[in-house]
């Protein structure tokens, strides 16, 4: 349990702190390997995407829709609202062996500043078998709601842990 404002972890060489990320968040291009696996198969793979960087959150990675294998995205009911990016629509990830309900989302018409994300898709790592960035398996952002991916080059503490609601 966290009480009060957190003390940021000190980044080591080659690391970045989520406490140095801006609010409102920043969108940046990402060049590197990103994969998503579900049901024993790779359902998405790309060498380019985008990262959304927001104070206290590990990066959320967005992949081009073309990175996803044919038939693995199924539109899901419902939507949510992000104060920065607008209305999100959801997808189930589907393979013959497994379905992950509402495990992915997109912004069809993102707000100003986030236009490159239109149609790009983010995935909640905890609902998959495995997600990687540059070959490293990621950990999902704590709390079950947020879509950040934690790698060894990002330090926290991360929003989503108990007691972090007011960060």
UniProtKB/TrEMBL annotation:
Coiled coil: none annotated. It comes from the Bacteria. InterPro entries: DUF427, DUF427_sf. Residues 34-124 form the DUF427 domain. Pfam families: NTP_transf_9. Residues 1-22 are annotated as: Disordered. This is DUF427 domain-containing protein. It comes from Mycolicibacterium arabiense. The lineage of its organism: Bacteria, Bacillati, Actinomycetota, Actinomycetes, Mycobacteriales.
């Amino acid at each position: 349990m966290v009480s009060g404002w957190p003390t940021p972890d000190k980044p080591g060489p080659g690391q970045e702190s989520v406490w140095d990320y801006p609010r409102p968040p920043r969108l940046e291009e990402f060049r590197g390997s990103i994969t998503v696996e579900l049901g024993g198969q790779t359902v998405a793979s790309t060498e380019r995407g985008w990262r959304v960087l927001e104070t206290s959150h590990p990066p959320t990675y967005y992949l081009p829709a073309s990175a996803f294998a044919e038939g693995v995205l199924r539109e899901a009911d419902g939507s949510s609202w992000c104060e920065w990016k607008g209305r999100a629509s959801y997808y189930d990830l589907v393979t013959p062996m497994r379905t992950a309900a509402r495990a992915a989302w997109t912004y069809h018409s993102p707000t100003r500043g986030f236009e490159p994300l239109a149609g790009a898709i983010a995935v909640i790592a905890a609902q998959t078998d495995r997600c990687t960035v540059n070959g490293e398996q990621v950990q999902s952002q704590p709390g079950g709601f947020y879509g950040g991916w934690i790698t060894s080059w990002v330090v926290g503490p991360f929003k989503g842990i108990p007691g972090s609601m007011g960060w």
